[in-house]
Amino acid sequence: MTLWRQPFDAAEKATKPGQIHIDKERCKGCDFCVDFCPTEALRMSVELSSKGYNFAVVDDESKCLACGFCELICPEFAITVSIPLDNNVA
Amino acid sequence: MTDTLNAKNHSIEKYLRQDRMPHIWCSGCGIGPAVSCFLRAIDRAEIDPNKIALVSGIGCTGRVAGYVKLDSFHTTHGRAIPFATGLKLAKPELKAVVFSGDGDLVAIGGNHLIHAARRNIDMTVICVNNFNYGMTGGQVGPTSPLEARTTTTPYGNFEPPFNLPYLASASGASYVARWTVLHLRELERAITEAMIKPGFSFIDVIAPCPPIYGRMNKMPLPMDSMHYYQEKTIIRHGADPKEADITLNGPILAGTFVDIERPTFQDQLNHISSKVNAQV
Ligand code: SF4
Ligand code: SF4
Ligand code: SF4
Prior knowledge:
The complex is a heterodimer of chains A (about 90) and B (about 280).
Chain A: H1 10-13, E1 19-22, H2 32-36, E2 42-48, E3 54-58, H3 69-73, E4 79-82
Chain B: H1 31-44, E1 52-56, H2 64-67, E2 71-74, H3 80-90, E3 95-101, H4 102-108, H5 110-119, E4 123-129, E5 132-133, E6 139-140, H6 164-171, E7 175-180, H7 184-196, E8 200-206, H8 210-216, H9 222-232, E9 233-235, E10 252-259, H10 265-279
Parallel strand pairs in B: 1-2, 1-3, 3-4, 4-8, 7-8, 9-10
Antiparallel strand pairs in B: 5-6, 7-10
The complex binds iron/sulfur cluster (SF4) (3 copies).
């Protein structure tokens, strides 16, 4: 997202990135988390898991907004997002 | 490092039988996100997990009962609602939740569904609707849209499907909503509301079945169905459920359609029995 004007308190109000934990042995490579992450913090791996799926990996954790949508949409319950305690996201 | 909540107590892991994971559902199956929403809704509705009885029938969605660490029962085909009715009558303090698929709830269990709604039994029914019988290889079901290809209708389905929100509301349900598994925040809220609501609540969850229904209908990848939901869903709360028909690749009307107060089965029963007791 590009802003034409940076709010003066943007740095202060910015959310801290969440910590994303992906269980690669549960992942079945459906692509939902990668496609629907609003900031493209995730990507699919090139290598295969032991069951033969490409799995989701964290591409750039600093981009993560800790929105938790990847955790919610993962059909395999493979993702957990730890949200920083002082983030005021619901 | 930022101070983080403990991942263990901030997730739904505590409600999952982790020894059963990974589950049997296909890659990109819509049942998983629906289960996630339900498990989160337990905490959100502040319901004691020890008071929840989860009942499911047969089919892919029927497996939910085996994956959750709640009191759960995997019933025979179509009989999830009567089983939950019995539980509710014997132990009214239980929160009965029926989690099953469209084939189980609406085809073989169709009569149970309409009669439970008519009686307004206090239970929540979550129906994962993927338009076919996924587990047995993709036969045509009571919700397959007209002209949809399935393994038993290779030239296109010629039976008009049920409109589930309309069926549930016409039968007397107190709460009827429909969401897709892309609208997860809304779905989570709807399940929360449904569990708190006294009376019969019905949630139609539109879910992808990529390798079976999707493959037959030009949506073979999990993302194809999700993009379809993203483009074609129309959210209209309070809409007339009559208009919630689904056509092949047509618009999907979503939202909370019915949210009314009606005396529940238990209320009516108590009313009559107190009248009888007053006479004797
Ligand atoms: S929590 Fe949100 S921003 Fe972070 S990786 Fe998941 S979807 Fe992307
Ligand atoms: S949503 Fe889950 S199963 Fe799908 S790619 Fe991401 S981690 Fe894997
Ligand atoms: S057959 Fe369809 S409904 Fe069954 S697990 Fe696979 S994707 Fe899900």
